[in-house]
Amino acid sequence: MTEPHRIAGSTVVVTGGCGFIGSHLVSALAARGARRVVVIDSLRYGKPQNLEAGLPVEVVKHDLGFGDVAELERACAGADYLFHLAAEKHNQSKDDPTRVLRANVEGTAALLGAACRAGVRKVLFTSSLYAYGRLSGPPMVESEHPHPSTVYGISKLTGEHLTAFFARQHGIDFVTLRYFFVYGPRQFAGTGYKSVIVKSFERLLSGSAPIVNGDGQQALDYIFVDDAVEATCRALESPVSGELFNVGSGVATSVRDLVAAITRVSGKPAGVEAGPADWTAGSSRVGNVAKIRDSLGFVATTSLEQGLTATLRWLEASS
Question: Where does 133-210 show beta strands of DSSP type E?
Fold first, then answer.
């Protein structure tokens, strides 16, 4: 345990800050009194329009693993804290694994080196449930041995190790978070991967029935973006260092139950269209959230229907 950290009055670097989770995090940091937020983003998936007007934010366009490291040095100068969210995602890894490794591994190493040389006091690295690797079994717990089964999962687990290495080499604090299925407004900005939630809402809004693949009993751990951001800020502000936490609701929601909730929220009953079983058949990917509850006092508070309602309102407003 170290001394608590204070976001108020600090200079914070957020990679991926123009993206889905990152843009919500930037707003939360400003609300907590951050003096200055430097966003590093490739703008390949994120959009500056995701950032609220009037925030004390500077956007630096940089493609991790490909851009000039000097840009990272300048962006990190004077920073107190680093939130590293930017990454090539799972679906990109299937099409271009080399790019994913270069961005998520080489880019992370370059970023951490620049941040440590700049004298940051704490690093918050966002990892993924894909670091665990398994698709079934009981809720995933931080103490189990990870066996990532995708290039993306391998890259995120490597990022966890790199974060620990650089932080310990430079004597700074760090925390790693493994996000489960984060959803909410801005989840899909016109590029990248559409979640089951976004695809189902879009089908309902267009007058079509949502699709359920296989028996729909695949179970996932959904957490609303505002809750994920709250957990992320608490992990930074806490005196805890060197720890790994799951960030999820801890609740297993089947795709069939999820689609039923989406339909209720939309007010457009349309039945369900059956699709073929896919690679997720029989899977259960849920996080054990006891550690983050006990260590940081964090419990997700947004109900599924509340979160889905907020997501629908955003989709309607942006259509």
Answer: 173-179, 181-183
152 is catalytic: yes
pLDDT per position as a tens digit, 95-151: 789 999 999 999 999 999 999 999 999 999 999 999 999 999 999 999 999 999 999
**DSSP code for 104:** I
pLDDT digit string, tens, across residues 12-38: 999 999 999 999 999 999 999 999 999
d(CA 282, CA 62): 40
The answer to whether residues 80 and 72 touch, using CB atoms and an 8 Å cutoff, is: no
Catalytic option among 81, 130, 152, 222: 152
Dump the DSSP string for 267-303.
Answer: T-----EEE---TTTT-EE-B--HHHHHHH-------
Q: Is the pTM of this model over 0.90?
A: yes
Residue 243 — very low, low, confident or very high, per pLDDT cuts 50/70/90? very high
Q: Give the long-range contacts of residues 301-308, CB within 8 A, separation 24 or more.
A: 301/227, 302/224, 302/226, 302/227, 304/222, 304/251, 304/253, 304/258, 304/261, 305/261, 305/264, 305/265, 306/224, 307/183, 307/184, 307/222, 307/224, 307/225, 308/197, 308/261, 308/262, 308/265
